Amino acid sequence: xxxxxxxxxxxxxxxxxxxxxxxxxxxxxxxxxxxxxxxxxxxxxxxxxxxxxxxxxxxxxxxxxxxxxxxxxxxxxxxxxxxxxxxxxxxxxxxxxxxxxxxxxxxxxxxxxxxxxxxxxxxxxxxxxxxxxxxxxxxxxxxxxxxxxxxxxxxxxxxxxxxxxxxxxxxxxxxxxxxxxxxxxxxxxxxxxxxxxxxxxxxxxxxxxxxxxxxxxxxxxxxxxxxxxxxxxxxxxxxxxxxxxxxxxxxxxxxxxxxxxxxxxxxxxxxxxxxxxxxxxxxxxxxxxxxxxxxxxxxxxxxxxxxxxxxxxxxxxxxxxxxxxxxxxxxxxxxxxxxxxxxxxxxxxxxxxxxxxxxxxxxxxxxxxxxxxxxxxxxx
Length: 380
Ligand SMILES: [Zn+2]
What we know:
By secondary structure, the protein is α/β, with parallel strands linked by helices. The protein contains 13 helices and eight strands.
């Protein structure tokens, strides 16, 4: 059990958060707070179209914008190279435009160059936009560690139309990541473990309240948001879930901590099948494993599994394209022990994690059969 090692409470968050349709077109207004010379690191998928649009918008605003493409892994060497490249332009502010890995790389660049950071995600698939850390990988894509920063992004800009235009699967992955927030917060609260603020402090009531609200809003708006995302339109439910996936989930995890759900996700990174699914999708299955390990009530399992199946969050190994074999389950469990199981309020070892994965998979299978043809949200 990772108990708190100081009585001081800590809270962290981005300085500013803005969300709305077509907000990206207003980027020069936000970078202008820090100076006239901006630099953006852009996901390869958006690079060409976004660079063209930014050049026009910045020219109109009488400011300068240089861009670089992101198309690789988040490794220590690569973030240093990205920082060296950015430094050539002497930017006043750096902007991340893309998904989790683009954002994590740009956070490292801002930290190395000690310049302000604006994060403008192109999907709501993780809670990376708000949090003051980058998840670092090996060249082979294996999760290595978290690189912690002493401050959060200065501005987070969520363009809800760009997010609505993205495939709905991204939003579902973000909901799965957000689903873990409350259960990991509760586990950390029960074991009184350090949160992630500057190396670890005791959690605030604000942090706990955000994690609880994150879960309530997911249940209330998840299905409605998914329907809007499938049609690529912005609705009130979608706006709420964009906030849930990005701001609430980000604040919730950073101010409380991770536990079993993210341990399972990181355990899966040892398998080659890891590449077939998004971070949140693996975390979603991890939530079921964590709840089984904690012996959660049938009522809670019913609620969580019903929600997962209604929106399409993976609840079995098969959903993650992983074959249910003793070898695969052992490999996930073994690798997961390197992560956050020590923040659960009870002793748990590799054998118990194997049991939790096996039972969670069977439970997920049972619920899928039970709810076949009957969307779970209709039953609530
Ligand atoms: Zn996560």
